[in-house]
Amino acid sequence: MADELRLSIEKLIYGGDGLAHADGDTVFVPYVLPGEEVRANAKSRKKKLVWAELLEVTSPAKERGKARCSHFKNVAAAITNTFRRRNS
Question: Is pTM beyond 0.90 here?
């Protein structure tokens, strides 16, 4: 599997990361929403698990909004929790 991945996010998992699959591996990507198409860079691997860094959201989910502050990645849990409340 190449270091740069093109992924379709299937769902959010415990902790807020998005889950996707690529070449038989399970990939975890932070700061994404279900249904999004993204480009990500593989950062670490353990057997069939890959942890990746988000590079770009190429096709955003309709629920994605503009970050309200420049510190978004530091407070991404708030966005994830809002999404979960709206969709539970």
Answer: no
Q: Between the CA of residue 46 and those of 12, 38, 42, 57, 69, what are the distances in Å?
A: 20, 21, 11, 25, 34
Q: The tokens 């929403």 sit on which residue?
A: 33
Residue 6 has pLDDT above 90, yes or no: yes
Mind listing the domains of the chain with CATH numbers? 4-86 (2.40.50.140)
Residue 77 CB contacts under 8 Å (≥ 6 apart), including other chains: 16
Beta-strand (E) ranges in 1-88?
4-8, 11-12, 18-22, 25-29, 37-46, 49-59
- Give residue 82's pLDDT: 65
Number of H helices, E strands in the chain: 1, 6
